[in-house]
Amino acid sequence: MESLTAALTWENYDAVLFDLDGVLTATAKLHAVCWKQMFDEYLQQKSRERGEAFQPFDSDLDYRLYVDGKLRYEGVRSFLESRGIELPPGDPGDSPQVETICGLGNRKDKLVNELLAAGNVGVFEGSVSLVHHLRGQGIRTAVVSASKNCEAVLRAAGIADLFELWVDGKVAESLGLPGKPDPATFLKAAELLGVEPLRAVVVEDAISGVQAASRGGFALVIGIDRHGDAQALKENGADLVVRDLAELLPGKAGRT
């Protein structure tokens, strides 16, 4: 097993851009639960209307293929297309009861907010330790997330002060930035930090995220294998894959 610290010299980089869910905070499962609840309720409604058998949302496969790492409304559209369901896009201000792409996305967001209000936010301690280490080395840190709840999650987790800025779903929407796997949000974060992509590292756990970072021309793309996806992460653009970011702390052994 090769030590990643031997290959990684943090002084070669000016900034590290982190995804949120599944990288810094243990909220990926929370999101998956909310996606499943929202989609299953809607799919049950459609199955009754069509007189077809109900096929539930798969929290593992469907989540990873169609919604993980994507902007909320893009995730809704992507999954529904996989089931042959077409809906009008609607408007971001649509009520959760409206049957549009935005309406369904807002149903999911309502569920997430209810769980966040209940304090269901945890962090990955290895990730937090690495962020502290990087900041101690003078390396700048930012969060790039598709979530519109990014700030609320960071503050609920008590780690918002560890990052100079975040480019999240709200920022992407206001600036008209496409979501991952397009690199636009990562590139915007680097621009706001005043850092060239070739001097920045991206840390992701989603396939769409490593694809985005790879397409953005970043110096190093680190994948976190939370779901047994090490090979897929490598094939889609991760230069290194670890199980936990604590492996990248000085004196720790990791894997490529």
Describe this structure in words.
It contains eleven helices and six strands. It starts with a helix and ends in a 14-residue tail after the last strand. It has 256 residues and is of the alpha/beta class. The chain has two domains: 151 residues, 3-Layer(aba) Sandwich (Rossmann fold), CATH 3.40.50.1000; 89 residues, no CATH class. Helix 11 links the parallel strand 5 and strand 6. A six-stranded parallel β-sheet has the order 3-2-1-4-5-6. Helix 3 packs across helix 4 and helix 4 packs across helix 5. It catalyses: beta-D-glucose 1-phosphate = beta-D-glucose 6-phosphate.
CATH superfamily of the largest domain: HAD superfamily/HAD-like
The helix tally amounts to: 11
**Contiguous uncertain segments of 5+ residues:** 1-6
Rg: 18 Å
The CATH architecture of the largest domain is 3-Layer(aba) Sandwich
Mean pLDDT: 91
Cα shape:
elongated
Q: How far apart are the first and last residues' alpha carbons, in Å?
A: 8 Å
Number of domains: 2
Would you count the extended β strands for me?
Answer: 6
Strand content range? 5-15%
Please identify the structural class as seen in this structure. alpha/beta
CATH class of the largest domain: Alpha Beta
Q: Which percent bin holds the helix content? A: 40-55%
